[in-house]
Amino acid sequence: MKILRKIQVLTEITDKFQKGFKADINKTIEDLNVRLREIEQEIKKVGKPKTQEEHIRLNNFLHFKEQQLSSIDNLKSRVKTVMKMKDGEWLYEASLDSLIELKVGDDLYDKTRTGKIKVKDGKIIEICE
How far out from the chain centre does Cα 98 lie? Predict the structure, then answer.
């Protein structure tokens, strides 16, 4: 039988990682700010809604604007957290799924526990099954 199990991706903090991480996040924030300005222009175009359709459209734009602002705040917070970390500390980056095979006699708890992939400066340095 094949099942999915979780694999954690952990990145070791280095100066190189921090610089790249900050640059990537800042680029994403710039892109979100461009989109935010586009949304604000659309909100101005709608103006004061006169019809039910315009009201729904305006609410959708306002909701999307709030989502963009929240994303920007979360990214800024994440950058602050990462930049405060010291070399050698580990940052949880992601969770991936891994397909494993189970057979009669396997230790279920051993086979299904969360695995880990450790990364340093973009290179895998350890795989913990």
Answer: 19
The pairing of beta strand 115-120 with beta strand 2-12 = parallel
119, 90 Cβ separation under 8 angstroms: no
Q: What is the pLDDT of residues 7-63, one digit of tens each?
A: 999 999 999 999 999 999 999 999 999 999 999 999 998 888 889 998 999 999 999
Which position has the token pair 């940052």?
Answer: 91
Residue 129: predicted pLDDT: 77
Q: At what angle do helices 15-46 and 52-84 cross, to 10 degrees?
A: 160
Number of folded domains that form the chain: 1
Question: Torsions phi, psi of 14, nearest 5?
Answer: -135, 165
What values do phi and psi take at 15, rounded to 5? Answer: -60, -45
Residue of 111, 122, 121 whose CA lies nearest to 4: 111
Give the range of the structural domain holding residue 54, as residue numbers without chain letter: 2-84+91-128
How many residues are there in the chain?
129
